[in-house]
Amino acid sequence: MPKGADATLIRYRSTSGIDGSATEVAGVVLTPAGPAPKEGWPIITVGHGLTGVVGDCGPAERPDLTSTSQKIIPLVKAGYLVVMSDYQGLSAPGTHPFLDPKTAAYNLIDAVAAARQLVPQHSNKWAAWGYSQGGQAAWAALERAKEYGKAFQFVGAVALDPAVTGTELLDGALAGQLNKGQQAVFPALVAGYLAKHPEGKWEDFLSGSALENHEALLSCAPEDLKKRAAITAQIVPSEVVPAAPEAQAKLRAWLEEVSLPKTAGDGPLLVVQGGKDELIRPEWVQEAVRRGCKLGLRVQETVRPGQDHATVEDDQEVLDWLGARFAGDQPPPSSCE
């Protein structure tokens, strides 16, 4: 943390995007050092990347926020009141609905309300920022900002290497072409499907060592984290593929359901993609951006040629873009023109 800044763990109320029920979510609020500006701290709600899908995977209580701190500390240093959600089911009771966009959007927007209650010196303006899974969450928040966050003034969203589409991973699985990183993530897709469709069975989608070790792959217990690399090394392509056509069709339908974009959104979007990303390939995100353009989304896309999924991060371009959005500079740049 920057010197003089403050970190506060929180628990707040949100809503399930699957059934509309009330939920409890954990998170952390990072308050910048020094006095707040006259109009109050501008707020950025953060969606973190994939850590796991069970109750011990929330990063808020971990010293380095499960490696998220290095990506968001620049936001705190730049003078933003940052609130990071652990998402439903991580660090709080309930099931984590991995990649459910409504739940993710609600979690990020309700985190803004929680931060406002905790820190009186807040602005009414907010933006969403996310990386990987959190990039999808930030994009989803952009699509529901006016509907669900109408009490606050939304200015835009930043999505780094966003996981906005998964059908390509299924296609790769069916073709036996997933790399090791993608093979390790595939069980999380299955977990997301089963959160929405609990009548399904793990064995419909996984087999062999992937099925035998899926709980360890998705857990964040220290003993399981130590085994992740070894477990992933054991997986072969045939173990991370739905065997039956019916299971393939069901998983594809769910992946299409949770893919983004769905609307033109309620504000501008900046998409930052690592050109060497082998987990969420640049062309997949570029196709999502093209679909967004057709829907009327105002989106600026930038590709970082030398960065991969692990190394893409904030830089001055991102900070300048956010600063312009909070300042009300119009119109924001667009890659659709």
Automatic annotation (TrEMBL):
Q: What is this protein called?
A: Secretory lipase
An MF annotation (GO) of this entry = triacylglycerol lipase activity
Which Gene Ontology BP annotations are present? lipid catabolic process
Spans through the membrane: none
Origin species, per record, is Segniliparus rugosus (strain ATCC BAA-974 / DSM 45345 / CCUG 50838 / CIP 108380 / JCM 13579 / CDC 945)
Concerning SUPFAM superfamilies, the annotation shows:
alpha/beta-Hydrolases (SSF53474)
| One Pfam family from the record | LIP
Highest taxon, organism lineage: Bacteria
Task: List the Gene3D superfamilies.
Answer: alpha/beta hydrolase (3.40.50.1820)
